[in-house]
Prior knowledge:
A hairpin with a 2-residue loop joins strand 6 and strand 7 (190-198). The protein is 42% helix and 27% strand. The protein is of the alpha/beta class. It has a seven-stranded mixed β-sheet with strand order 3-2-1-4-5-7-6, sandwiched between helices. The chain has eight helices and seven strands; from the N terminus they run αααβαβαββααβαββ. The protein has one domain (3-198): Rossmann fold (3-Layer(aba) Sandwich). The protein is globular, with a radius of gyration of 16 Å. The chain has helices spanning 3-13, 18-21, 24-40, 60-70, 83-95, 128-132, 136-146, 161-173, and strands at 50-54, 75-80, 102-106, 119-124, 147-159, 177-187, 190-198.
Amino acid sequence: xxxxxxxxxxxxxxxxxxxxxxxxxxxxxxxxxxxxxxxxxxxxxxxxxxxxxxxxxxxxxxxxxxxxxxxxxxxxxxxxxxxxxxxxxxxxxxxxxxxxxxxxxxxxxxxxxxxxxxxxxxxxxxxxxxxxxxxxxxxxxxxxxxxxxxxxxxxxxxxxxxxxxxxxxxxxxxxxxxxxxxxxxxxxxxxxxxxxxxxxxx
Length: 202
């Protein structure tokens, strides 16, 4: 077995990550996020659509996006600042005989060039903003820059009520229209927060 592929599965299901990744709560959160995409984004996907995911991490979400979008004739670009995450996903996709091409880019999304107004859909989920080292507004600015006019963003994060206010304030300031919003309390005053927002077509 490929070394990076073996390390991926070991990290995902080994003693450190396995208890959480296989727990009912984690599986529920994964289900809610994929269902949100399937309901709010996938119906719009079509031949030639370009989708960008910001923050690869373990690459599970990227696999889901590639299968979902690829089946409709769309294409996925996945971006992460960590070269290990990028190369691990690249090797795993080969090992898994993944049927769709995924454009994997190792870059800080705030500095990535050549992608202005390119993508129909952008997704940024989980701890991506936290792990980027950037303020949330800077990361959202980057998403705004690479989205086409009229494009959509799926933004999901774990936070407190103030997190909701910060994001919704950003949407108002940048004339983004919230089409769907969802929240679920996950304990200790924290929430799973998701939005489907559309950038102005102008």
